């Protein structure tokens, strides 16, 4: 049976879940070094890094090209257009996004209380409340992401992350670091889902840091 090709959107969602698990285990502080993240798959060592100034300029050029193509394609709608259409069907995306922000505010408030608490019982209660809020926030974020995945803004964002990942994904060859893919087309057609998935969520974390989960 032919293996189903996983889309970049699906990989991004898997990456979000992986990011969340890693954050919970407090692992990122141990793997981010000098704005780079190294990781290993089988016997190869890979890394992603921040863009250079020249790479930022090239990314901006590619972003403009992609944005123009999306705007000229009438099959794509902007986020506000999707929001209006969903509201007609009884789905209030603005309300869902407000709930995500409200949860984030409450989480930060409880984290401040947790930092000042030494009583084990209070620590347990606060931790449980924080985790419940994070779980709810995560579920709503995934729902909103799914509903808006075809809007112009989401498509552009996915492209920017994918193109960035293509540029900064490198493999170690002795003491040298070489690009994994020779072109964006090669990257886009790659079926190495494990490598692409890991690289995507590490790049997301390098760019957005602790706000990655909230962003999604």
Give keywords:
single chain, 216 residues, alpha+beta, five-stranded antiparallel beta sheet, 10 helices, 5 strands, disordered C terminus
Can you put this structure into words, describing what you see?
- This protein folds into two domains: 1-75 and 153-216, no CATH class; 77-149.
- Helices cover 67% and strands 10% of the residues.
- It is built from ten helices and five strands; from the N terminus they run H-H-E-E-E-H-H-H-H-H-E-E-H-H-H.
- Strands 1-2-3-4-5 form a five-stranded antiparallel sheet.
- Strand 1 and strand 2 form a beta hairpin.
- The chain is flat.
- Residues 210-216 have low confidence and may be disordered.
SSE blueprint and pairings:
Layout: H1 8-24, H2 28-31, E1 32-33, E2 36-41, E3 44-49, H3 53-72, H4 79-88, H5 93-115, H6 120-147, H7 152-168, E4 170-173, E5 176-179, H8 184-189, H9 193-208, H10 212-215
Antiparallel strand pairs: 1-2, 2-3, 3-4, 4-5
Helix pairs in contact: 1-9, 3-7, 5-6, 7-9
């Amino acid at each position: 049976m032919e293996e189903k090709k996983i889309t970049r959107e699906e990989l991004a969602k898997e990456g979000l879940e992986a990011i969340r698990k890693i954050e919970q285990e407090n692992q990122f502080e141990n793997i981010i070094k000098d704005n780079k993240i190294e990781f290993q798959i089988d016997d190869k060592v890979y890394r992603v890094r921040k863009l250079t100034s020249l790479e930022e300029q090239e990314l901006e050029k590619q972003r403009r090209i992609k944005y123009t193509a999306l705007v000229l394609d009438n099959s794509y709608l902007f986020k506000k257009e999707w929001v209006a259409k969903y509201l007609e069907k009884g789905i209030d995306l603005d309300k869902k996004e407000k709930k995500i922000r409200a949860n984030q505010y409450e989480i930060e408030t409880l984290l401040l209380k947790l930092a000042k608490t030494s009583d084990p019982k209070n620590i347990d209660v606060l931790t449980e409340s924080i985790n419940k809020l994070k779980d709810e926030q995560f579920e709503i974020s995934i729902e909103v992401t799914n509903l808006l995945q075809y809007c112009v803004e989401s498509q552009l964002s996915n492209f920017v992350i994918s193109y960035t990942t293509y540029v900064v994904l490198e493999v170690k060859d002795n003491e040298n670091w070489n690009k994994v893919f020779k072109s964006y087309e090669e990257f886009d057609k790659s079926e190495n889902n494990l490598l692409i998935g890991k690289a995507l969520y590490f790049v997301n974390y390098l760019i957005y840091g602790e706000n990655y989960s909230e962003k999604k």
